[in-house]
Amino acid sequence: MHFEAITSKENSLFKEIRLLQATGAKGQKARLAGGHALLEGIHLIQTWVGDPSLKTLITSEIGLKNAEISEAVYAHLEICPKTKVYQLDSGLWDLLSDLVNAPHIAGLLDLPKSCLLPPQSIASLDGDVIVLDRIQDAGNVGSILRTAAAAGFTKVLALSGCAHLWSSKVLRAGMGAHRLLDLYEGWSTQQMLSAVTSPILAATADANCDLYALEKDLIHPVAWVMGSEGQGVSEDILAQVKGVSIPIDPRVESLNVATAAAICLFETVRVRRT
Question: Which pLDDT does position 88 carry in this prediction?
Fold first, then answer.
């Protein structure tokens, strides 16, 4: 099967990929402008094989000689035959990745509607929700998304100041969890407080309320707020919600936010199973 070749870094698709790889506001602007997220690597492509929102695949002659990559490309084409596949000149892959022997496979995924809707257009968010408050490390955000998917918490809301949920680094850290979640980002604190209908619990080190004394609260839908790595949950939020602490050895200052999220979410799961 013949695929269209890309041989120049001046190609419009190649330029779009480079913009989508950008960090911070530049990458987010490109994602929102084009309505695409960039999937890099075989694991993420395999996660979305057969999903019609994966409308573009980019590989190379070297990539197609890899059995795993070739299988993913043709399996997706069989289910979604209108997918556009491009063969990128192998030399151009060096401009896309700092990794030695990086797998020659990537894709453009249509962003879900939840990410493109302005917060003011969403009247309410019901049920269990995870709220991320200014968590800036992409690895932490991606880990929390994986934990959320594993625990069955399917709604994640990132307030302004968080690492962008559909950035390349968060996608890699999420290991495919994005496909199982409804993701919202760029909300203000007030928009979150107005839209979330479940009782809001904020994980914070100095709260008087102990996580393991919350069985009556956790049996019902809740919204868990996880705060930034350095400052924790903002004072604006803490003033209006219930603070909850995880009991730890007093010789330890704090827990990593992704670890704290895992403890809170799976304690919620445990309570509901008993």
Answer: 94
